[in-house]
Amino acid sequence: MPMEEHHHDLTDDVGERRGFLGAMATAMMAGGLIGGYGTFATYAGRFLYPSGGDKTSWQFLATVDQLKIGSSIPFETPVGSKVVVARQSEGSTAEDFIALSSVCPHLGCAVHWESQNNRFFCPCHNGAFDASGKATEGPPAAANQSLKRFPLMVENGLLFIKVPTESVRGTREA
User: I want to staple 77 with a disulfide (CB 3.0 to 4.6 A). Which of 37, 81, 137, 165 is the partner?
Assistant: First the structure.
C-alpha cells in the first residue's frame, strides 16, 4: 500500500505543475494582449487627439540697426510660410516693427509693399491692405480678411520673430 500512496502523490504533483504552468501561460498571454492592445490604443489616441503643445519658436531676424524706417526684409518660416518684416518707426522696440504674412488670405497670391501708396497690394484681384495688414480694398476687404500678423521681440538690439515650427498636419508646408 505504501507504493500506491507514493504513486498517488506523484500524480498530484504533476497535476499541480500542469495547473501552475497553464495558469502562467494564461497570465502571460493576457499580459501580451493587454500590452498589444494598450500600445494600439496609445497610438490611436495620439492620432485621433494630437497634443496641442506649443509648436512655435523665436527665430532671429536681424539687428535693429539693419532695418531703416520704411524698409523691409523677407523671411520664410520653418514650415514654409512667407513673411515680410518692416520697420515702421525710429524706435528700437518690437512696436516699431511689423511682421505680416506676405500671402493674401483671399486666394494665396503673393502681396508686395507699395511704398508710394503706403499699402500692401495683391495683384491677383486688386486686393489692398494698409500698413498694419488690415484689408482695405478688393475681395479681402469684402471678406474682412487681413494679413496674418506674427509677434516680434527685441532683445539686446536683436530682432526676433515667433513662428510656427510645425504645420497643422505635422509636415512641412510647400
Answer: 81
Alpha carbon of residue 98 to chain centroid: 22
Residues 79, 172: contact at Cβ < 8 Å?
A: yes
Cell of 148: 496674418
Nearest CA-CA partner of 133 in 114, 123, 146, 121: 146
Q: Which residue's entry shows cell 504513486? A: 7
Dihedral Cα 107, 113, 116, 122, nearest 10 deg: -10
CA dist list (Å): 167 to 44, 77, 81, 146, 150: 20, 10, 10, 20, 15
Specify the pTM: 0.62
Summarised one tens digit per residue, pLDDT across range 110-162 is 998 887 888 889 999 899 999 899 999 999 999 999 999 999 999 999 999 99
d(CA 109, CA 36): 48
Which secondary-structure segment (H or E) carries 86?
strand 82-87
Contact 152, 160 (CB under 8 A): yes
Contact indicator for 61, 75 with CB cutoff of 8 Å? yes
Q: How many CA atoms lie within 13 A of 19 on its CB side?
A: 6
Closest CA to 85 of 137, 96, 110: 96
The Cα–Cα gap between 139 and 124 comes to 10
136: three-class secondary structure by DSSP:
strand
